[in-house]
Design goal:
Elements lengths: L1 E3 L3 E6 L6 E7 L5 E6 L7 E2 L5 E3 L6 E4 L2 E3 L3 H9 L4 E6 L12 H9 L2 E3 L6 E4 L3 E4 H6 L3 H13 L7 E5 L5 E8 L7 E8 L3 H10 L6 E3 L3 H6 L12 E3 L15 H14 L4 E9 L3 H11 L6 E3 L1
Parallel strand pairs: 4-9, 11-18, 14-18, 16-17
Antiparallel strand pairs: 1-10, 2-3, 3-9, 4-5, 6-7, 7-8, 11-19, 12-13, 13-18, 14-15
Helix pairs in contact: 1-2, 1-7, 7-8
Length: 308
């Protein structure tokens, strides 16, 4: 069990709520990552795959409204990369601060902090069988109203519901291969692969080549999202904004394939809700919802995994 030696304070704006939130990451004496809404009188919120409440705001939310926390994936990816498997995160609002839209600032902060414990190797979850979840399956399991909204959104923006996430046995680390396919020319088809084998070298590769990749969206979608309670805290400092034609961005890119690199951050954060996974993950036009569905399917039978 590895936790921080000291408290870590952080403040920022939530990308969807637009509210300034303050958070305090405390050392903890229990295994697991837990959130605590200090503005509410509620129980601790465990950060686990079976406690995911919603993924329809283009993020991952844990807990049940109102005792829930949105947009935890960037923080979770940084905790995963730095091997933190015990922490209590107190927050005074409904959503994590978006910071610059990436995991960079979390990682830079964690890299300066002392930790305690971690002498004993944490239990790993080895994927034993291939697991595939598809967008069509996700749609079938949605409430009718959400399914109609998503179908309308896909029709409006020319998106196809052919994405999938595949888990399979692989090596001694977590190998992620992510592919995006967008009609917007500035994105197009992008793929990126990242292997995290729980070493310092892998952590450095993440810090140098992935951590600073920001979330993104089309500027013309902004008003649509704001009317539905989303993206109220989005701006040019925390989101890569595509222009209306989709052939360029309104702010400079850090890499030409920054979009798919950011998806690696999201995948790592989502997958860490299932623990220290060992295996391969292929994501084709994936989503937070598909990531969570893949974990639920993986843990639905002990034949699919082995804890070592």
């Amino acid at each position: 069990m590895k936790t921080f030696a000291n408290e870590i304070k952080l403040s920022g704006v939530g990308i969807h709520s637009g509210r300034t939130v303050n958070m305090l990451i405390r050392p903890h004496d229990r295994p697991g990552i837990f959130f605590k809404r200090i503005d509410l009188d509620g129980d601790l919120i465990p950060a686990t795959y079976d406690n995911v409440g919603a993924t329809n705001l283009r993020n991952t939310t844990i807990g049940i409204f109102p005792n829930c926390v949105q947009t935890i994936e960037h923080l979770m990816s940084a905790l995963f990369i730095f091997g933190i498997d015990s922490a209590l995160i107190e927050i005074d609002g409904p959503e994590m601060p978006i910071l610059d839209g990436s995991a960079k600032q979390f990682c830079e902060l964690f890299g300066k902090e002392k930790t305690t414990g971690g002498g004993k190797r944490a239990k790993r979850v080895f994927i034993k069988k291939e697991i595939i979840v598809r967008q069509e399956e996700l749609l079938r399991n949605m409430p009718a109203i959400l399914r109609l909204k998503l179908l309308f959104y896909n029709l409006l923006y020319g998106k196809k519901s052919d994405g999938f996430v595949r888990l399979y046995p692989y090596g001694n680390g977590l190998l992620i291969n992510s592919t995006l396919v967008y009609k917007e020319h500035v994105i197009g088809t992008q793929s990126h692969e990242f292997l995290f084998d729980y070493t310092d070298n892998a952590r450095k590769r993440f810090m140098d080549g992935i951590a600073a990749a920001r979330t993104f969206g089309k500027y013309s979608e902004w008003e649509y999202l704001k009317k539905r309670g989303m993206a109220r805290g989005a701006n040019e400092n925390n989101v890569i904004a595509l222009n209306d034609k989709g052939d360029s961005t309104l702010n400079a890119l850090r890499w030409t394939d920054e979009f798919v690199r950011h998806k690696i951050i999201d995948i790592l954060g989502d997958m860490y809700l299932g623990g220290w996974l060992v295996g391969g993950l292929e994501s084709y036009k994936g989503s937070h919802a598909l990531n969570n569905m893949a974990l639920k399917k993986l843990f639905s039978s002990p034949d699919n995994y082995e804890i070592v």
